[in-house]
């Protein structure tokens, strides 16, 4: 047998004997019962109750009132909800008196906006080119939607309290 084969065989035998010794030690440790102590301490599995993290009865409602993608997560302002260039003499035909803009989604060439009736109810999602109470959605940008009815135009803003901001 040459020297390389002899040293390899010796290393393999050493590693095998070490594995066997570790296996025996582990088997003995597993079979040996833990020492009995004079004081028995039972672990407590009771959950910790922290009032600050407990959900309130209307937690989902409160969360829904705060816009997710607004940098300050402020609640939607009640008034004003629009920038209007329509004739104020006929407010019943204007969408800014009946709807609030609640959301905008722009994905590539597709754009949609959510309009919630001021009287209540779920929001209505409409795409560019669709109509809302006869008004056509002609422009959707991240913070506002422009609607047109003939020559009249009106713009509903998502965050009306930031109209003057850049």
Helix and strand topology:
Layout: H1 3-31, H2 59-64, E1 82-84, E2 99-107, E3 110-117, E4 124-127, E5 131-132, E6 135-141, E7 144-149, E8 152-157
Antiparallel strand pairs: 1-8, 2-3, 3-4, 5-6, 6-7, 7-8
Description of the structure:
This protein is α+β, with helices and mostly antiparallel strands. The chain folds into 2 domains: 1-31; 77-162, SH3 type barrels. It contains 2 helices and 8 strands, in the order ααββββββββ. It has helices spanning 3-31, 59-64, and strands spanning 82-84, 99-107, 110-117, 124-127, 131-132, 135-141, 144-149, 152-157. The strands form 2 sheets. It has a 5-stranded antiparallel sheet with strand order 1-8-7-6-5, with no helix packed on it. A 3-stranded antiparallel sheet has the order 2-3-4, with no helix packed on it. Residues 78-92 have low confidence and may be disordered.
Structural class: alpha+beta
Biggest pleated sheet? 5 strands, antiparallel
Question: What is the tally of helical segments?
Answer: 2
CATH class term of the largest domain: Mainly Beta
Shape: elongated
List keywords for this structure.
single chain, about 170 residues, alpha+beta, SH3 type barrels, 2 domains, 5-stranded antiparallel beta sheet, 3-stranded antiparallel beta sheet, 2 helices, elongated
Describe the structure concisely for a colleague.
By secondary structure, the chain is α+β, with helices and mostly antiparallel strands. The protein has 2 domains: 1-31; 77-162, Roll (SH3 type barrels).
């Amino acid at each position: 047998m040459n020297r390389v084969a002899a040293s390899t065989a010796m290393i393999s035998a050493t590693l095998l004997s070490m594995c066997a010794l570790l296996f025996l030690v582990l088997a003995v440790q597993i079979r040996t019962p833990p020492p009995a102590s004079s004081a028995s301490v039972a672990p407590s599995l009771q959950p910790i109750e922290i009032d600050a993290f407990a959900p309130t009865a209307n937690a989902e409602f409160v969360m829904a009132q705060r816009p997710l993608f607004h940098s300050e997560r402020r609640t939607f302002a009640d008034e004003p909800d629009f920038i209007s260039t329509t004739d104020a003499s006929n407010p019943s035909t204007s969408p800014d008196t009946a709807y609030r803009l609640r959301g905008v989604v722009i994905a590539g060439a597709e754009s949609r906006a959510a309009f919630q009736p001021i009287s209540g109810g779920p929001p209505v999602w409409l795409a560019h080119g669709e109509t809302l109470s006869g008004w056509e959605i002609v422009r959707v940008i991240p913070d506002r939607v422009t609607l047109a009815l003939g020559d009249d135009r009106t713009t509903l803003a998502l965050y009306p309290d930031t109209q003057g901001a850049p």
